[in-house]
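Budget justification aside, the reviewers requested a transparent look at the raw inputs and outputs of the sequence design task funded under Objective 1. We therefore reproduce one unedited record. The lines immediately below are the structure tokens for a 324-residue chain.
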């Protein structure tokens, strides 16, 4: 009997030790919870300089490209600071001016005003590859800096290339679906106009730019504005329209411009050269000149081609051109 009681006491003591150990183990390892882990509050963006961590909720984005201004406004966001174009007066681009009123300007893409950017205290800065060549390291010291875009002509055969940076910026705001809706709207707008252009008997188009001392003709591709005109809208290149890169057009070569429509972009300092062109008998022999189908643009088509807002404006202008 005594031995049985002793055995019982030993077993009870062992049980107490086991329960105590289990209790301590439970305290040391918290139970698994069904609720998700709290977000870190950041997101990682892949870009031309690698990967960069930025806030999950971006409140102040500085952009150094007309295209990126377009992208932000397309998804209903306003930049905290924007670049200017010195050759066009060093102010807001006119087709964005109303929407940008009061937003600080921070110099040009080539020469950003670092002090002005610092005063904004941005969450993130978005720049093009050409800006990164000279100022990336300086900008990165102010705020996380994203480098978008790519080198010219890497996208020659990609007619949707202009959408890539829009979708990247939209993703930073969790608005990719909205961006895709806006892209689809512009594509549908272009499709409807293309159907009208296809009905034209004569649809050769030359996209020309008058510069201070020369006349240039833009290519059939190599830039989103070019592919909008010749691919999305269905205009036919002239016999002198280059395939991939714009070229200078001598006065003698003007006679070879067999265009039914001419889009004429004129630089601010090009009035004298334009007068020389208008006085030339060779210019007067261009079919579009004889039928009064020369359309002078607002000099911003090369910017507009990169964004949904700008492309929509170009399409509206082209529709006016063919209907007049």
């Amino acid at each position: 009997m005594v031995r049985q009681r002793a055995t019982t006491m030993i077993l009870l003591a062992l049980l107490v030790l086991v329960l105590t150990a289990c209790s301590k183990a439970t305290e040391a390892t918290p139970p698994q919870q069904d609720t998700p882990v709290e977000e870190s509050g950041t997101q990682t963006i892949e870009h031309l300089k690698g990967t960069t961590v930025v806030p999950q909720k971006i409140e102040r984005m500085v952009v150094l490209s007309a295209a990126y201004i377009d992208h932000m406004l397309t998804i209903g966001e306003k930049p905290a600071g924007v670049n200017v174009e010195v050759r066009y007066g060093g102010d807001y681009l006119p087709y964005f001016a109303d929407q940008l009123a009061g937003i600080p300007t921070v110099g040009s893409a080539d020469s950003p005003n670092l002090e002005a950017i610092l005063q904004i205290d941005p969450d993130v800065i978005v720049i093009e590859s050409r800006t990164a060549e000279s100022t990336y390291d300086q900008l990165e010291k102010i705020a996380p800096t994203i480098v978008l875009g790519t080198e010219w002509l890497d996208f020659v055969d990609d007619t949707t290339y202009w959408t890539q940076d829009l979708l990247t910026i939209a993703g930073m705001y969790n608005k990719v679906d909205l961006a895709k809706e806006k892209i689809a709207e512009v594509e549908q707008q272009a499709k409807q106009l293309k159907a009208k252009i296809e009905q034209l008997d004569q649809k050769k188009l030359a996209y020309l730019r008058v510069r201070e001392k020369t006349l240039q003709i833009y290519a059939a591709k190599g830039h989103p504005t070019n592919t909008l005109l010749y691919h999305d809208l269905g205009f036919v290149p002239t016999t002198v329209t280059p395939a991939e890169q714009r070229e200078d057009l001598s006065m003698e070569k003007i006679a070879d411009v067999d265009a039914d429509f001419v889009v004429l972009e004129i630089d601010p300092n090009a009035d004298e050269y334009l007068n020389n062109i208008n006085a030339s008998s060779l210019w007067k022999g261009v079919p579009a000149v004889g039928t009064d189908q020369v359309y002078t643009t607002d000099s911003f088509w090369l910017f507009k081609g990169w964004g949904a807002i700008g492309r929509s404006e170009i399409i509206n202008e082209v529709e006016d051109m063919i209907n007049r």
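Confidence is low (pLDDT under 50) at residues 1-38. The longest helix spans residues 2-28. Computational costs for records of this kind are itemized in the attached budget.
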